[in-house]
């Protein structure tokens, strides 16, 4: 698990519209809900915002906050906690904290400019597939839309 030593930026962050099929499935179940924590917030059009905690000009940004999805009386639990970008074996990956470990849930095309994800699609890894209960295939797009930019609150 990573510790956040930097203070969150109030203007920069990750805006992530998590797969509509997943969010719709969770919210469509009796008692299905999500819980925000650690500075994460909900923006219009179901974007989840995670504040930036690394330097704004960092090549591989880190974010803070959590979104926990719960359904089926607690039988379905998926938590997106402290997303970050990192390099693994020459590939850019999206990671999250999962208890005491950090797991890679998606691979991403090379970033280019560190302030934009325009045209970049995170694709599920095996760990990402497992996180979502094997409901999606490895390589499937993880998001509807995702951006790293000035998140207006």
Describe it.
The protein has 153 residues and is mainly β. Helices cover 10% and strands 41% of the residues. It has two helices and eleven strands, in the order βαβββββββββαβ. The radius of gyration is 15 Å and the shape is globular. The N terminus is likely disordered.
Largest sheet: 4 strands, antiparallel
Distance between the termini: 27 Å
Number of helices: 2
From the alpha carbons, calculate the radius of gyration and give it in angstroms.
15 Å
- Number-wise, the strands total 11
Q: In what range is the share of β-strand residues?
A: 35-45%
Uncertain segments are 1-9
Sum up the overall morphology in one term. globular
How does the helix and strand content classify structurally? mainly beta
Strand order of the largest sheet: 3-4-1-11
What are the secondary-structure elements, in order, as H or E? EHEEEEEEEEEHE
Question: Roughly what is the average pLDDT, rounded to an integer?
Answer: 82
Q: Helix proportion of residues, in percent?
A: under 10%
Summary tags:
153 residues; mainly beta; 4-stranded antiparallel β-sheet; 11 strands; 10% helix; 41% strand; globular
The gist of it:
The protein has 153 residues and is mainly beta. It contains two helices and eleven strands; from the N terminus they run βαβββββββββαβ. The strands form three sheets. It has a four-stranded antiparallel sheet. Strands 7-8-9-10 form a four-stranded antiparallel sheet. Strands 2-5-6 form a three-stranded antiparallel sheet.
